[in-house]
C-alpha cells in the first residue's frame, strides 16, 4: 500500500505463477526462496521481487552411498509409478509424494551463483552439497550410527557468515562444522549420552545468537482427525538451549546444553526457512523473546493438515497459533 494524496493505492506484484507453479519451497534466505519441482527435482534459488533465478543440479544427481540407493519403478506404459530405496525396503513412495517425503530442507551460504547449498535428504537424513556451477551434488560429512538400526539424523543446518562455516545438528544433538566444500570437518558437540531417551516427536534447529550456539527443540505431535483419514500436526512444546563448550577443547564429551529462557530482546524463526533471529527494535512488528514457527512436520504430505504456524512466548510460557485447526489445509507448507 502507498498513499497518493488522500487516497490509499494498492500496488500488486506481478504474478509469480510462471516461476513457482508446481514447485514447493524447501528453504529461504534473506528474502530468496529455494524452490523444488516434483518431476526433475531441480532446485532453484528465486527472488520473488526481481524474478531472478539461479539453478542448482538436480537432486537425482546425489550419489548413492552405504545408506541409500533410490531407484524408480516403471509402469507398463513407461512412466514412473513410484520410487523405492533398495537399502530401506520399507520405503516406497509414489512419484507425486517422493519429493515431499524424501527431501527435508535446503540451506544456502549466499544468494548468488558462487555460494554453496546443503540439502538434508533421505530416510537417514544425510547431507549433500552443491554449487550452482556444479554438474552434480557431492556427499557431505557423516556421523556413524549408534547401531545398525539407529541413524544419527541431521535435522538442521546453519551457515555462520563470519566463520564461513556450516553447522549441522542431529536428532541426538550432535553438532558438526564444515567448510563450503564439506571439508575441514570438526565435531563441535557429541550426541547425548542415551539416545533411547530422546523423544522421537522432537526436532532440533540450530542458530547462533550473540556469539553463542543455540539449539531450539520443538515437539510436534500428530493427531488423528478421524475425518477423511486426515492427520493434524501440532507443536506442543519448544525449549531453548545454549551450548557451553568444555573448558578443555580436547574434551568434547564434557560440553553441555544449558536451558535458557531469555533471548535478549531477539526472536527466533524456525521452519523450512533457514533459522534466523531478529531483534524487536529492528523489526518493531514482532514480539521479543519468542520463537516463531511454521509447518515442519516429520512427514509432510497432502494427507496431513498443515496449520501448525504461530509463536511461542518464552517469558509467558504460552503459544499463539495463527491458523485454526479446522481451517483449510495450508498446502504446500508456509515458510
Automatic annotation (TrEMBL):
It holds the Pfam family Beta-prop_KIB1-4. Residues 19-303 form the KIB1-4 beta-propeller domain. InterPro entries: F-box_BR-signaling (IPR050942), KIB1-4_b-propeller (IPR005174). It comes from the Eukaryota. PANTHER family: F-BOX PROTEIN SKIP23-LIKE, OS07G0183000 PROTEIN-RELATED. This is KIB1-4 beta-propeller domain-containing protein. It comes from Dendrobium chrysotoxum (Orchid).
